[in-house]
Amino acid sequence: MSYSLLAADGSGFTSPGPGDFEYPPLFGAGTFFTKPMLIIVLASLAVALFFYLAARRAVVVPGKLQFLGESVYGFVRNGIALDTMGRQGLKYAPYLTTLFAFIVTLNLSGIIPLLQFPATSRMAIPAFLAVISWVIFNSIGIKRHGFVGYFKAMMFPPGIPKLVYLILAPIEFASTIIIRPVTLAFRLTFNMFAGHLVLLLFILGGEYLVFHKGGIVGIGAGSVSLLGSIVLTFFEGFVQILQAYVFVLLTALYIGGALADEH
Amino acid sequence: MSLTILALQLAAKDEPSPLFPHPSELIVGLVAFTLLFLFLRAKVFPMFEKVYSERHEAIEGGLERAKKAEEEAEAALAQYREQLAEARHEASRLREDAREQGAAIIVEMREQAQSEARRITELAHQQLEADKQQAINQLRTQVGSLAVELASRIIGEALQDDSRQRRVVDRFLEEIESGSGDSADSAGAGASASGPGTPAGSGKSGGDKA
pLDDT tens-digit profile of B46-72? Predict the structure, then answer.
């Protein structure tokens, strides 16, 4: 194995790799439902339940749960939608909030006991979310400026020497149409992927060192590794929230850019 | 699974590539996300928006009410100040008026008093004049009758010497002094007869005679 960390003997440690992200079907061979899908379903239900209970009896003076739900909504609505787009961003606050809640829950499933797998590290989830964002901001741009107007504003921003357009136009086109969705999806996927891999490495490696390697060195190093995994778990939690925020913020910025009169 | 993924997996030799989306995950994820979005959009966010606007309304309304109350208080204060200033002005105006009126009254009173005094003085003068005139008239009539009597006495006696003559005169004067009742009565009757009639005319005639 090219990934082996401590290949001293035959029964050596197999380091975690992309294979650890592939789960067998939960209900035996032939069925399609896997752990990441279960996480997706549970997370969606949890988000729906949380917001439903928070908003069920919404009153002017909120209770704790309502306050919590409003805080999440208000964070995205005021902190992202209104800040990036102004009053016209209010229309997109529901979508952006759903996006944020969905991503952050799936991200955090990576450090929630028993689940312990970030479903967003599966390419499929960020991919379709990025595609939805892509469709939204492009269709808004086209609706706002017309098909030609949108691409003209995108590729030929005014106030630049004519010759520069030769380089600028293809770059702008590629940036907006191709690079934006790809980076959106990849950034999220591989942040989660790498974070999960590092956690796996620290935990499985520590476990191996303590229980299989043994000895003063093994137990000592393994303990450090396991303790480090706790610290890393908190760090992961931070990264998971941050990446959800980044995804939503970028989506909002793209929508805002499409809405803007000057590109 | 699509062919491409299969091919890539084969190429990676049992190491499935994390780069390519798993179709069933894609479907489950998409369905879950769509349902979640539709649910939240229908049931949750409108409630939050409603509460936001209500809260906004409540706060804004409260602020507006407070502002209005403040404005009212200020207006009332301004009105009171104005009224106070007006009242002060009015008071000073009244004081001024009173002073002027007082001064006017004093002047008027003084004039009245002066005219009264003048009138009284005038009256007194007239009275005095009348009395004087009466006295003169009385005197004139008495002097006339006395002179006539004296003359008749002198003529009645034989006027030979001076001593006799002096005696006659002295006696006459004594008579006048002692028996003034007779002559005074006659003089008074004469005065009363001529006095009320035409004192000015008699005075004039008396003057002419004199």
Answer: 999 998 888 888 888 888 889 999 999
Interface of B with A in 47-66 (CB under 8 A): 47-48, 50-52, 54-55, 58
Contacts for A58 with CB less than 8 Å, ≥ 6 apart:
A66, A70, B47, B48, B50, B51
Return the number of other C-beta atoms located less than 10 Å from residue A58's C-beta: 20
Give pLDDT tens digits for B76-127.
999 999 999 999 999 999 999 999 999 999 999 999 999 999 999 999 999 9
Domain total in chain A: 1
Q: Provide the domain limits for residue A159.
A: 18-259
Between chains, do B37 and A95 touch, taking CB under 8 Å as contact?
A: yes
Task: Please judge whether B18 and A32 are an interchain contact, meaning their C-beta atoms are less than 8 angstroms apart.
Answer: no
Checking ipTM against 0.85, whether it exceeds it is: yes
Q: How far apart are CA A221 and CA A205, in angstroms?
A: 9
> Is A8 inside any structural domain?
no
Asked whether residue A13 is assigned to any structural domain, the reply reads no
pLDDT, position A201: 92
Residue A86 within a domain: yes
CB contact under 8 A, B15 and A17: yes
* Displacement of CA A141 from its chain's centroid (Å): 24
Residues in chain A within 8 Å Cβ distance of B54: 60
Q: Does residue A225 lie in a domain region?
A: yes
Separation between Cα atoms, residue B44 and residue B39, nearest integer Å: 8
Q: What is the pLDDT of residues A242-251, one digit of tens each?
A: 999 999 999 9
Angle (CA) A101 A105 A111, round 5°? 155
